[in-house]
Amino acid sequence: MIDEAVVGAPADAVWDALVAEFRGAAAWWVPANTFETVTGAPDVVGGEVAVTVHTKGVDKGGLKLRFTSRTLSVDPGRRLAVEYVDGVFRGPATFVLEPLDGGARTRVRMHFRGRPHGKLKVISKLADIGAEHSKATQAAFAALDRRLAGARDGASR
């Protein structure tokens, strides 16, 4: 599954926001997901990040789905590949940034190939996990665009 969006900011700003979010910034992927560094750093090979999916939103109750990603490869400002190694998802995911319009905008893609594991595998028989993941990712990318647009607007004053 591939989710993508165009963000009205340069790739370096999108990269910085992505890495900050994985370090725990909780700035734009909430209310769906929160992240916390476990070991190393998310933009360093071998770094691990604990991910919590808040099915009803942060602090709203509901099921919390947890998993851990380990960074496999990094091309700063361009590509981050991870492997889900523990918890309710297993398998790879890749974030790819593509500069557009001479660098003024960036296409951000998440190639998600994680497979449900454990209790989520059972839930996936009743719910379309892929559609829910895509909906949350698209909402996060839209929030990222709004956040970086706000930073741009504030900087131009």
Written account of the structure:
The protein has 157 residues and is of the alpha+beta class. It has a single domain (2-155), classed as START domain (Alpha-D-Glucose-1,6-Bisphosphate, Chain A, domain 4). It is 28% helix and 40% strand. The chain has three helices and eight strands; from the N terminus they run βαβββββββαα. The chain has helices at 11-22, 119-123, 129-155, and strands at residues 2-7, 33-39, 48-54, 64-75, 79-87, 89-100, 105-112, 115-116. Strands 1, 2, 3, 4, 5, 6, 7 and 8 form an eight-stranded antiparallel β-sheet that branches. A hairpin with an 8-residue loop joins β2 (33-39) and β3 (48-54). The longest helix is centred in the C-terminal third of the chain and has 27 residues, at 129-155. The chain is globular and about 45 Å long. InterPro entries: Polyketide_cyclase/dehydratase (IPR019587), START-like_dom_sf (IPR023393). It comes from Streptomyces liangshanensis. It holds the Pfam family Polyketide_cyc2.
